[in-house]
């Protein structure tokens, strides 16, 4: 029995931690968030080299919606795994002083870059395509920008839709999400014998 418990403990410790801890800056931290120089062109190149999509998450200290996103949505095991496998996540602080270099080469403190990029609400998620043209700013380059926290099913659909470049398909996200929601509902009904 003791060997079995030792095996289970070792197995559980080898798994990635799901969920966020609170950082010294008052922002939720996950182990899949990247500590970068916040140079958008470099971060995009690194994401692409790993076969991942660049996701910038804007948050702020005391943000109840950020807490909900981390505790109720991103901590769901399937969502956590999907983010880890498919996204290169860089966190930005809406009122932070860390320097950020935009795709267009301009360098500003996070709080000033938030103003330049029009980020006024947290969380705001900015998803970038694999390639960004030279000289464009992040808001122009973003494939999708989503202000606000949403439920797990909406987040799941958004992550998949962006990763699979659904924004290029002509089907907007709301229609995609409705289609996926209906498919899940039909599958649940089929599984219960209804």
Automatic annotation (TrEMBL):
Keyword Oxidoreductase listed: no
Domain named Thioredoxin-like fold: residues: 47-131
Keywords: Signal
Record-given protein name: Thioredoxin fold domain-containing protein
CDD domains registered for this protein in UniProt: SoxW
Organism of derivation: Maritimibacter fusiformis
Record-linked SUPFAM superfamilies: Thioredoxin-like
Signal peptide: 1-19
